[in-house]
Structure formats: C-alpha cells, structure tokens
Amino acid sequence: MTRRISWLKWLSIIFFVIPMLLILVFPFIIMVSTSFKTLQEVGDIPPTLIPKEPTLQNYSEVWQIIPLAYHFRNSFLLGAGEMLLVLLLGIPAAYALCRFRFGGRQPYMIFLLITQMFPAVVVVLGIFRVVAAYGLVDNLAVVAFVAAAFNLAFCIWLLTGYFSAIPPEVEEAAMMDGNSRLGAMIRMTLPLSWPGLIAVAIFAFMDGWNEFLFSLTFIRTDEYLPLTVGLFRFITRFQIQWQHLMTGSLLATIVVVILFMMVQDKLTRGLVAISEK
Amino acid sequence: MTVVGCKDLVKRFGNEVAVDHVNIDIKDGEFMVFVGPSGCGKTTTLRMIGGLETITSGDIFIDGQRVNDIAPRHRDIAMVFQNYALYPHYKIFDNIAYPLRLRKRPKEEINRRVHEVAAMLGVEGLLDRWPRQLSGGERQRVALGRAIVRNPRLYLMDEPLSNLDAKLRVQMRREIIRLQRRLGTTTIYVTHDQVEAMTMGDRIIVLRKGQIQQLGEPESLYHHPANMFVAQFIGSPAMNIYAGRLEGDGTGLALVADIGRFPLSSALAAQLKPDHGAARGDREVMWGIRPEDIGLDRAPAAPDCPRAVVDLVEGLGSDAYVSLRFSSTLLLARTSSDSRPAENETVTVHLNPNKIHLFDPRTEVSLLQAA
Amino acid sequence: MSVRAEVVRPAPAQAERAEGAWQRLVADLRDNRFAYLLLVPSMLTFAALVLFPLGSTIAGAFAKTDAVGRIIEFGTLANFRDLARDSYMPGIIRQTALFAFGTVALTVIFSFPMALVLNQRFPGAIVARSLLLLPWAAPLAISAMTWRWIFHDQLGALNHLLHLANITQQNIGWLSQANLAFACVMFVEVWSSIPFMTITFLAGLQSIPPHIYDAAKMDGASSWREFWDMTVPQMKRVFMIVTLLSVIWAFRSFTVIWTMTQGNPFYRTDISVTYLYKLAFQNLTFGQGYALAFATFIVLIIFSIVYTRVLRSEETA
Question: C45 at the A interface (CB within 8 A)?
C-alpha cells in the first residue's frame, strides 16, 4: 500500500510543486538576470534569461542614477526604528498578557484583534491631517511609529507565544532570591527568551524595511524615501531603466531575505503557535 | 478459527534491530500477552501483525494465509490503542459506527450493532457526546466498542490500560477478560506490566531487546523461568539472585553461597539439566529465591542455618517485606504481617529447598528443566 | 476559590449591580497595578495611532472638509451622497468584492495541495519550504514592480515565454487592457499570499494526532477515506480562520495594485482602498475619502462578525 502512495507523491511533486516553486521564485530570478544586463540587452527583443554580455556596471551606476544610498539609509532607519518601537511597546504588553490574569486581559486581546482589521488607509487618512498640520511630513520617525503601531498586535501575539514557553517557576525562583517582579522579568525572562526576541526584532525590522504605504503618503522629498517608495518613484518619474531598477530591487531584497533566512525557523514556529489559538 | 503465526520476524529501524527473529504461534481463541520492558519490541511486533509497520524480513500468517503485503483494512483485525485514538471530530455513536460505515452496512444494521455494543460496554448513555467530554475509562470503553462492533477475527491491544489510574485499571482488566471469554476471539495484548500479563494471559511471551525470552503459561513462567531476566521480571517483589557455587560430594549436590550451604533436595537435583556440569566437579552458578519462598524464624536453629539481622520492615497491611542483612548480602523476604519480625532483630532464615533457582552465570540461562 | 455559603440570594437591584461592577473594576485595577502599567505604552500607541485616526475618519466622513482634510462643517451626509453619485463606484464595489474573495479562493486552491505535499517527506522538502517563503520575506512593493517588468508588453519575460512556447506571437498588453490588468493584480496578490497560507495549513496538518490515521487504517479506511474523513474535518477550523484573515487582508491590499497599475486603466483595477486614497490625495476630496474609508471599515466589521458567528455555530454543532 505504501508503494501506491509513493508514485502519486512523486507525480504531484513533479507536476505541481516544482512549477509552483518556479513561479514563486520567478521574480527573483528575473531580478538577478536583469541586473546583469546592459541597457542594450534590456531592450533586446527577444529578451534573454542569461545575459549574453553580463556586466557589473549597473551595480556601480545605480548609485548615481537613483539616490540609492539615501534610500538604503532610510530603509535601515525605518527598520531599526520599527524594531525598537515594537520591542519597547510590545514586550511589556506581551509579558502582562502572558503572566497575569486580570479583568482587562480579554478586552485587550479582542482589541488587538480589531486593530488587525483596519485598512491601513484609514489610519493614513486620519493621521494625515495631524501630520500636515504639525509639519511632520518627511519625518521618518513618524512613519516608523505608525508602521510599528500597525504591526504591534501581530508582534505581541508572537511575543506572548515565546514568553509562554518560559516556565514561570524560573521567575518565581528569581523573586525568592530577592528580585522584584520587574527585575525578574528583565534578568530572567528576557535573556531566556532571546531567540524569540531576536525573531520578533528581525520580523519588525523586515516590516519596516518593506513598508510602502505610510512612506508613500508622509514623505515627499526624495532624500527621505525608503527603498520601496524610492524605487517606485523611479518607475513613474524617469524613462524607466529597467536594469537599474532591477539592480536596486535585488540589492533591496537581498538584505531582508538574508535576515529572514536566519530566523525562518523561529518565525514559522511562532506562526504555528498563533494559528493554534 | 483464528490462528496467528510469526516466522523469523525481523524489524530494523535503520541500524537498530527492534524485533530479532521472533517466532510465535498463537492458538485459536487464545488471549496471548506480549510483555517486556519498554523498547523490547512488543509494540513493534504487534503493529507488524496489524499491518501498521512494514516487515524487514520474515513472515506473518493469519489463518494460514501470508499477510505480509496485505493492507490492514483487509486483514479483518481490530486494534485498541494506548491513547484510545478516538476520532475527535465524531460523536461517540459515529466513532463506534465508523468501521461499519466504511463497509457500507445498511443503516438499520449499523444502528442496531452500535447500540448492542454500547450496551455491552455500558456506554449507551454517552452515544451523543464528543470524545473530549468523556473520562479516560469511558474513552477506553468506546475504543473497545469500536473494535468489537465489526466482529473481527483478531483483536490487537496496545497497552490499553496504561493511561488509566490504578483502581480503574484493575476494574477494566477484569472487564476485558470477561469480554474476551464471552466473545471467544483470539486476542493479542501488549503490556509492560507483569501483573496484567500474569492475570490476563492464557499464555505469555516475554520479550527483551527484540528477542523472545520465554513463551508459556503464566504458571510455567513463574515456577520455571527460562533465564534470569524472566525470573526477575515475573513476580513482585523480584526474585533475589546472587552468585554462588554448586559443589558435589558423595551424597549429592549442594549450593554454596555467601549466606550458607544448602544441600539440594532430590526433587530439585532431578530437575537439573543433563549438561549442568556440576557432576564433573564444582561449578559457578547464579542462584535465586523468591521473597515468598523465604521463611523466617526467631528461634535459634542448627549452627549451619543462616542467620541475618533485620534491616528494614515495610508493612503492607496483610503482608510485610523484610530486608535481611547478611555479612555481604541483602535478601528481601515476604512474610505475613502477623509473623513479621522487628527491625534490628536477628532471625533464622530458611530457604525452601524446592524453590531454589539456578542459572548459568555467563549465559543467564536456567540450569533447571521446565516441568 | 471559596465555597459560597449562601445558596439563594435575592437578585440585587440594577443600580447595586452596576455599583458592584464598578467596584470590581477598581479592585481589579488596584490588584493588578503592574499588569495594567505594562499595558500603558502599547495602549497609548493604539489610542494615538489607531483609535484617533478612526475617530478622525468617522468624523470626517460626516463632515465637509477642505483640501487638506480639515473639518469645515460637521453633521452632513453630503460625502456619502457624492459617493453614491460617483459613476465609478459600482465598478469599484464589484472589483473590490471580486478581488477580495477571488484572491482568497485562488490562494486556498493552491495553498492546500501545496501544504499536503510539503507535509510528506521527500528529498529537498526543506529547500522547498525555504523557497516557498521567499515572496513573504521580500518587500512586496519591489516584488510587485518586478512582476510589472515581467508583464511588460514588449520586453517582459511573460510574453517572451509565450512566444517561445508558440502559444501566441502577439505582444499582449497585460497591464494595459482592463480585464487582463485586473487578472494580473489578482495574480500577484495570490502569489504573495500563498506562503503564509501554506505554512498555516501545514501547521494545521501537523497538529492532527497521527494515531487517528492508524485507527482509521485498522477500521478499514483507504487513503482516500482517510483524507476525507480524518484530514478534512480536522482542518476545518484552521481553514475558516485563515480564510477570514485572508479576506480581511485582501480588502486592505494597497501596495500590489498601487505599484503595478495605480488603478489604471481608468479605475478598472482600483479597489476600495486605492480609490479612496485617490479621492483624498489626488482629487483632494477628503470628505469622500473619509466616507469610503468608513464604509469599507463597516463592511469589514460586519463581515468579520457574521463569519465568526458562523464559525462558532459550526464548532458547537
């Protein structure tokens, strides 16, 4: 009977999984391929997958044509900003949810759920008035803050999962030894859950790096745009030099992908825990 | 008429041999118990008979037919699992009805059978509930019901009672035995608990590290263990076993141990295997005596009768376990509570001469023939 | 838990009960001071960045606004009236519904079999999992732009592949023809949703206790029966939750459409959120933007409530 299953399995792998995976990674293949092409080759009809004359010149040119350095800096600031904010705001909340039973717990969790249901545009519209009035346009901190607020619920869920894995006895032992609750949390729980913390930190960083809508709305000057919006502007503004766009895209993508691969395991495990709720 | 046979059955997981050339013959209507410590291969063997594990080599025959390549659902076997494996998304009625539904039996028949079986097991009132609403004992009965409902030719039970509390376990044990006697179907039962094995089995197979240590009726395993492992596995508290020597002189053989010298009774000597080797002179042995075969006496006896100091007395209500300290040996004896000695008292120790067990120190095999 | 001595007690009057509730609240705050303190930072953030904009939007929906969104005059349904008169609205509504439900349906159709296969062991399964997650990790805006490049009529990879395969020699304008463009944005949305849904399904599959498959085998189930009777019912719950989340996310999806078509051609690829963005920031008719945002939000809430009701009744059934 196991033999009968086997060939069905192999068949489905070949005819389903492999094509699916190809489609899933196709854009990245194109990114790589195009980034090594010259302007001439990009305009070639028919286009080629493996460039006939691979070149590295895009990688040096792109920095002049687009203010890529600024974009990188801004994306980094957004990522780091969101990461810090999420950790600062989320860790206390997750800890409270995890270790305490109090009346406000259920309402708070329901509230978290509700915040996930908002279209981001609602927030954008509502805040724009304030942002414009106080001259906070072009302020990356504002964008980081808004993005963090939006991502907060999900990250709190993740953190709650990671904290629950630490047995409360450890903290109780620390408190017996003379720590306050806060001290126990800082000295015991946080260090013990550091893999989970790193996963959430990187997740928040990635969210900031990948952010689009808020930056699009609240940032007007090129200098302050992150990679996502910056590259997008490149499309709509100039005559599109696809090879440069792809090169920039590839560079922008590699950073997060590498980060992601590092924490992939922990993240998916956190996801699993959430889906079980 | 359901007969099960295993010939040279082997199961390998990677480099590890879980079942090592096992040969079994199970008779029709028999309640056969596989017993042994965890990892001994009993569950693996059971699962191979059921078809849930592939066979590395060897054959399994049910009713004379070789079933190695036949899927479980065509073997007409039912299985009761250790954690019951009830379908959580079906109500109890549907859980029990499932095997019949799969076989597309008519609705009235399914209805009738399920109610019959539920009544037999006392779970009729639970038919409309969900598995998660039931207690351990109730789930156990439903699992049994699911196995019984389609009247298979063979039952496999994989430690079904180990998740129940002690009292419930004893009660369910009796129910299972009664059930099996009433249905008369061949049953293979796996457990690590030797008490369950002894009380339930028509015959018992003791397994260790994938190999059969002994196959026989409970009495036979108790009185004539084939090796040291079986001797210490069966019977509680475990048999006392220590090193000693067999000496032969003109009058007969005697056991010489740290605690004293014991001439073998003629009955015991007659049971020695022909190749026991003691006839040719002295021989190293391992000797054993069960706690219940040790007698204690306050009165000082003959000078060469062993005497010991009572180290610890554990009272169990009707019985008492007495730890006896000799110069370099510790024996555990069992007496009735009434006649138990006090701690630090010195007593005379009598070993029942017909109940001394002898084993080869190297192979651990018994030197006595089976009855 | 203390045992209550009085069994029968006359029901307290309404006012007394309310007072009791208030006292309980105060007591709770006092006893769990630390916990509530820990929640303060995040609550403040939510209040400022979630509750406030929501209130602002609701207020603005019912008011006349100026070109920067400030409220001039409150208490009017003019915005909703203007929306209802907007000739593009029917199309937008249709497109939004189609987009949200269509992408989720398609994502499920591809994710579930993917999860089933990935649940098996085969060489390269781990690599497959990692590759699967790539669309989720990468910046969506950038992936969408790359797809835009692929869909390019003259230089794009898709047309080239079609030429090669001899399916057609035309240069299809994927993003310039209304229906095709809509299909393309749906495609990219599905593409980006597959990783998350597949992983969630996979987690669900792996949480099914394996012994019930053994029991089913012994009871007589073929592999087909095992799938229908065991796998599918157990997955129901995961399935419902993940589809709810996905529909909500699809409703909110902005980046894909904006980077690929910006709603063109002629608003035919716009959905509610992109259209309202244009109303506010391009037409500068903030009032209508607020109104549409509010309407979208209400639709989402109603949908979630209805859906959760259905989910809960399914569970107890």
Answer: yes
> Is A192 within 8 Å of A174 (Cβ atoms)?
no
Q: What is the CATH number of domain B240-359?
A: 2.40.50.140
Q: Is residue A41 part of a domain?
A: no
Domain harbouring A102, CATH code = 1.10.3720.10
Which pTM does this prediction carry? 0.79
Residue ranges covered by each domain of chain C: 15-80, 89-269
Flag if C214 and B85 touch (Cβ within 8 Å): yes
For CA atoms C2, C5, C11, C12, the dihedral sign is negative
Q: How confident is the model at residue C6 (pLDDT cuts 50, 70, 90)?
A: very low
Give the model's pLDDT for residue A184: 72
Of C215, C220, C233, the CB nearest to B81: C215
Q: Nearest-CA residue of chain C relative to B156?
A: C218
C224 touches chain A (CB under 8 A): no
Q: In chain B, where are the structural domains located?
A: 4-233, 240-359
Domain of A203, in residue numbers: 68-275
Q: Tell me how many domains chain A contains.
A: 1
- The 10 Å Cβ neighbour count of residue B94 is 16
Return the pLDDT at B108: 92
d(CA B176, CA B159): 12
**Residue A1 pLDDT level (bands cut at 50, 70, 90):** very low
CB contact under 8 A, A47 and C155: yes
CA distance C221 to chain B (A): 7
> Of all helices (H) and strands (E), which one includes residue C122?
none
Of C217, C229, C230, the CB nearest to B73: C217
Q: How far apart are CA A176 and CA B318, in angstroms?
A: 46
Query: For B323-334, what is each residue's pLDDT tens digit?
Result: 988 888 888 999
Write the ipTM: 0.83
Q: Is residue A59 one of the residues assigned to a domain?
A: no
Q: What distance in Å separates the CA atoms of residue B87 and residue B95, rounded to the nearest whole number?
A: 6
Instruction: Quote the CATH superfamily of domain B4-233.
Output: P-loop containing nucleotide triphosphate hydrolases (3.40.50.300)
Asked if the Cβ–Cβ distance from B51 to C214 is below 8 Å, we say no
Fold of C89-269: MetI-like fold (1.10.3720)
Per the structure block, which two tokens stand in for C63?
């008011």
Is C9's pLDDT higher than 60? no
In a domain, A203, yes or no: yes
How many CB pairs (< 8 A) connect B and C?
58
User: Are B73 and C221 within 8 A, CB to CB?
Assistant: yes
Contact B302, B255 (CB under 8 A): no
